[in-house]
Amino acid sequence: MTDKAASTQTDGRILRGEATRERVLDAAERLFAAQGFDATSIRRIAAEAGVTLGVVGFHGGAKQDLIRTVLERRVEALNSKRRARLAELRAAGSPPALRDLVDAYLTPYLEYASQGDPQWRAYARLIARIVSDDRWYPAVGGLYDPVAREYLHAMQQARPDAAQQELATALTLTVASMLSLVASRARIAGLSGRDAGSPMDYRDTLITFCLGGIDAVSRAP
Amino acid sequence: MTDKAASTQTDGRILRGEATRERVLDAAERLFAAQGFDATSIRRIAAEAGVTLGVVGFHGGAKQDLIRTVLERRVEALNSKRRARLAELRAAGSPPALRDLVDAYLTPYLEYASQGDPQWRAYARLIARIVSDDRWYPAVGGLYDPVAREYLHAMQQARPDAAQQELATALTLTVASMLSLVASRARIAGLSGRDAGSPMDYRDTLITFCLGGIDAVSRAP
DNA sequence: GTCTATATGTAGATAGAC
DNA sequence: GTCTATCTACATATAGAC
Question: DNA-binding region at which residues (chains A, B) (predicted)?
Fold first, then answer.
């Protein structure tokens, strides 16, 4: 959003400013993910990043700009991974199977959410928080929806006889199930009686569940 | 939680105090549901209820007590409706069918969420917000989990060969799908391209989807 | 780019009059 | 039961020195 920092750089070298900026965004990402937007103060972000209050304002702008910057920083990573997997499936010839489509959409996100790097885990958690909240969706849904729509079209080609609205709904329920593995770990652990492992541990079950659901919906009268 | 108000009543008559208390809890319910806990100030609740700041404190106690009181006020309505439907299915003889179990668990919630009374809609929305958030689940999960576990046991009887952990996970994904119809209306509308109707409009699709998912999971090797 | 300092508003909570 | 008044803390945001 604001690139005051970068605009002072005339050559390609990255100075300490870049590193500080990353630390600020990292801290914001972790705290927004863990506690939500409203419960996270800029002061706390500054403390977590080891900078002063003014520095956060300088790099992040207003609080709402800050969270957008945090999300946008990594949005292309997830989108391009999903696009690449879809392209692979298409390159393999003939319309991709439904199961492969579901796998290709869900797995990259689960991988981020289960990755060793806590920063990527925080990003995945933040997405789950923000995208499923009606208050935030208008501001950020546009970041991820285009790719989801590409998958929806591919699914419609795989199930040409299914009602399009039903298929679209099935995809939104699939996404909700996926996000819940990251956002609702405590609920899942509490109900299933075991400590929740990493989201990737649920991958097979998730894919089976969602595929079964989509299949059932696309066969319904 | 705090029943200072009621404790001053020695006979059965309900004075203005009860009505005021309800107005406070109603306002809190609406605002917590619409904006979340952290974004909602007690002052705003007071304004919405048409009372002064001190009155909210008197009836609701500290902010965290207030939201618990709001949730507990109606928890029995949902729980007993689900229990009643489960009892009906059992009374009908022989283990209930999986589809009936899914229907019986999902439908009462969707009905509340789609009801004319905006107060019940707010309650449903608040549940969706709070139960899927890891930060809140420890404080409120215990309100709804016992009934969910009864359904889980019934599901295990309907699918005795399924792995228990898989079935439990399938139920948590079912719940997540259900909650998303209430909490993530904007996402659903955005992705499916139509204005989201009421959650009940999605009931058939939701049941088909979840049943297909549970079925697939409980057949998996 | 980063700091300190501060302007300005709002938060939760409660004490005490009525 | 309800209101007014206020305490104390913390919030966001920015101006200006370095």
Answer: 41-60
User: Which is the CATH superfamily of the domain at A74-219?
Assistant: Tetracycline Repressor, domain 2 (1.10.357.10)
Distance, in Å, from the CA atom of A73 to the CA atom of A2, rounded to the nearest integer, reads 12
Read off the tokens for A111: 């991988």
A135 to B36: CB separation less than 8 angstroms, yes or no: yes
Ramachandran sector of residue B125 (left: φ over 0; alpha: ψ -120 to 50; beta: rest):
alpha
Q: Specify the fold of B1-61.
A: Arc Repressor Mutant, subunit A (1.10.10)
Q: What Å value separates CA A106 and C1' D7?
A: 52
pLDDT tens figures, B140-196: 999 999 999 999 999 999 999 999 999 999 999 999 999 999 999 999 999 988 888
DSSP reduced 3-state for A71: helix
Q: Find, in chain A, the residue whose alpha carbon is nearest to that of B131.
A: A187
Strand D: positions under 7 A of a protein C-beta atom = 1-6, 10-16
| Closest residue in B to A182 (Cα–Cα) | B134
- Tokens 């914001």 label which residue? A28
Rounded mean pLDDT of A176-197? 94
Global pTM value: 0.93
pLDDT in tens, B98-149: 999 999 999 999 999 999 999 999 999 999 999 999 999 999 999 999 999 9
- Determine contact, residues B132/B114, Cβ cutoff 8 Å: no
Chain A residue numbers with beta carbons less than 8 Å from the beta carbon of B169 are 188, 192, 202, 205, 209
Distance between the alpha carbon (CA) of A64 and the C1' atom of C11, Å: 19
Phi and psi for A128 in degrees, rounded to 5?
A: -60, -40
| Banded pLDDT at B221 (limits 50, 70, 90) | confident
Structural domain boundaries of chain B? Answer: 1-61, 74-219
| Chain A residues closer than 8 Å to B98 by CB | none
Cα–Cα dist A32/A100, whole Å: 33
Model pLDDT for residues B15-57, shown as the tens digit of each residue: 455 799 999 999 999 999 999 999 999 999 999 999 999 999 9
Full DSSP string of A129-192 = HHHT-TTTHHHHHHHHHHHHHHHHHHHHHHSTTS-HHHHHHHHHHHHHHHHHHHH-HHHHHHHH
